[in-house]
Amino acid sequence: MAKVKEFMVMFFNNRWLVFVVAMWVQSCAGIGYLFGSLSPVIKSSLNYNQRQVARLGVAKDLGDSVGFLAGTLSEILPLWAALLVGAIKNFIGYGWVWLIATHRVPTLPLWVMCILIFVGTNGETYFNTVALVACVQNFPRSRGPVVGILKGFAGLGGAILTQIYASINWPDRASLIFMVAVGPSMVVISLMFIVRPVGGHKQLRSLDGSSFSFIYCVCLILAAYLMGVMLVEDLLDLNQTIVRIFTLVLFLLVIAPIMIPIQMTLSRDPLDPKEESLLASPRTNNEPAKPESEPDPNDFIFSELEDEKPQEVDLLPASERQKRLAQLQTKLAQAAARGAVMVKRRRGPHRGEDFTLTQALVKADFWLIFWSLLLGSGSGLTVIDNLGQMSQSLGYEKPHIFVSMISIWNFLGRVGGGYFSEIVVREYAYPRPVAMAVAQAVMAIGHLFFAMGWPGAMYIGTLLIGVGYGAHWAVVPAATSELFGLKKFGALYNFMTLANPAGSLVFSGVLASSIYDREAEKQAQHRNQRFNKLFVGDEPLKCEGSVCFCTTYIIMSALCVIAVVLSMILVRRTKVVYQHLYGKTRG
Predict the structure, then answer these.
(1) Which of 126, 232, 375, 432 has the fewest CB atoms within 10 Å around its CB?
(2) How far is CA 485 from CA 151, 274, 304, 489, 510, in A?
(3) Which among 503, 543, 548 is positioned nearest to 527, based on CA atoms?
(4) Are 415 and 474 in contact (CB under 8 A)?
(5) Torsion angle of the four alpha carbons 475, 481, 483, 486, in this order, in degrees rounded to the nearest 10
(6) How many Å separate Cα 326 from the centre of its chain?
(7) Residues near 524 by Cβ (< 8 Å), separated by ≥ 6?
(8) 3-state secondary structure string, 108-139?
(9) What are phi and psi of 295, to 5 degrees?
């Protein structure tokens, strides 16, 4: 009995258990990506036009991104309490929307519907914040893979919920809203006491590398399986039993990673002393900071390197460059000790140290990340929010197929973005934001496919936009924690997420909806003139053909090119920082 109790204690405090459970919580944090399937239901039920639907989409994006309260509560309350708040908000917001869409309660004005959508979707920010804060602290030296996998499962949530919806014989399409209200809340409440920091930086094991490889394999199999199931269900008329079998296999794949913490607990694999010595215990909010009167000279030496380093050093091979930088740092330290040079003591932290939000807001690097993210992810979110209308305008009868597809590509983009950006920083000590620039270039091409409306463009465009958009959310949180520290990561991350609703407000809420309604009005007037009928003003406007979104996505493509330029400026500015952070661990 004592051994069983000891096993349960070790299992419950295993950082891999926290990570796996956080993956499940994150799969409930992707309900915003279902808006492309929810919006046609709301539009037809409440007789909205596209501009009104776009306003609901902006409210959804605001709810999904305004996480200041979630970040603040995660520092004040226990993390389980923050998850509980998020679950309650999700249930109340989408539950009331379902009651209105099914006419069980009186219809409310559009602005009230926006508030309900905002409240329901805002629950995601609590799931996101708690999962990321807990796991980044538990895996301080594996931020790229951890963030990529967690954000990937958030992106995959839409496809998982869609498959669950397909396996249940619901009475009407509005039942999808009911499932969104009830399902995630139940899952999060049942798991909320597990997701927390458990001193993971002290749990380094030799099996960690193979464990990450196993999770990556599960991710790839899961994405391929969902894609195959989706295509089969789209092409064939399957009976409900087969669909339920598909869903059961999906559940088995999702829970498969639980084998990792079980194996870790049973094996009790010893620490690797060499690698343990490389780990610095992340400072918690309760640990006192160094007094300002006793600064660490190395902090100032690193700042001096940026000023004293000859320009030709950056052109040297990596090994020689690191050697020259180490020599320069030693000379500066010796000179400072003799008083031969006055090392400048800049006010506030330097890049790579712990920043507060107010300190980060005055840094150019912080705003370069923000504006690049706004242009890149904002244009991607415009596609996600309008995917249902886009597919209908091009004659596709099942828009939920593309919603599920972009969810899967989004998932692979996040997982792949975390994996490849980690290779960039670990193997080459090169700035992580270069991965964001590549993702934005891919998105620029994807927007052009949507604009042209070529045969098969919906499939190719969905692939490129999904992968590119997803990669942003693996790269940005990891880069933010590297450049501005972990201490206030919740607040920093949630400020960055404001780029999403800001981009959506302009690109989708104003630009895309206005162009769509203008083209729909032109087509309606043409039809009325052709059939000698009067235009009925209260009928929902409907646009057909690639012209509905052509202008919008040409503009989106140009904005992604601008985002690439901003990301490359950030790469150039942070080369020295990443050499300092990762150059010593190479080789």
Answers:
(1) 232
(2) 19, 24, 20, 7, 36
(3) 543
(4) yes
(5) 180
(6) 36
(7) 535, 541, 542
(8) CCHHHHHHHHHHHHHHHHHHHHHHHHHHHHHC
(9) -75, 155
Q: What is the pLDDT of residues 383-424, one digit of tens each?
A: 887 887 788 787 776 666 787 788 788 888 888 888 899 889
Q: Tell me the torsion sign for CA atoms 142, 144, 149, 153.
A: positive
Residue 82, pLDDT > 90, answer yes
If you ran DSSP here, which 8-state letter would residue 311 be given? Answer: G
For 529-577, the DSSP string reads HHTT----TTSPP---SGGGTHHHHHHHHHHHHHHHHHHHHHHHHTHHH
Provide the whole-model pTM: 0.71
Cβ atoms of residues 243 and 169 within 8 Å = no
Distance CA 277, CA 400 (A): 50
Give the chain's radius of gyration (CA, Å): 25
Three-state secondary structure string covering 40-63? HHHHHHHCCCHHHHHHHHHHHHHH
The CA distance from 530 to 447, in Å, is 33
Cβ neighbours around 251 below 10 Å, total:
12
480-526: per-residue pLDDT in tens? 988 988 778 888 888 898 888 788 788 887 888 888 888 888 877 77
State the pLDDT confidence band at 442, using cuts at 50, 70 and 90. very high
- Give the rounded distance of the alpha carbon of 158 from its chain centre: 13
Strands (E) across 205-314 are located at: none
CB 390 within 8 A of CB 400: no
- Side-chain-side CA neighbours of 144 within 13 Å: the count stands at 20
Q: What tokens does 347 get?
A: 């006010």
Residue that has been written with the tokens 């490129």 in this structure: 464
CA–CA distance, 170 with 114 (Å, rounded to integer): 26
Residue 497 sits at φ, ψ, to 5 deg, of -65, -15
Kindly state the tokens that stand for 125. 């920010």
Sequence-distant (6+) residues with CB within 8 A of 236 are none
Amino acid at residue number 292: E
Sequence-distant (≥ 6) Cβ neighbours of residue 241 within 8 angstroms: none
Contacts of 569 (CB under 8 A, 6+ apart): 368
Residue 280 has pLDDT above 50, yes or no: no
Contact 410, 155 (CB under 8 A): yes
Count of CB atoms situated within 10 Å of the CB of 543: 22
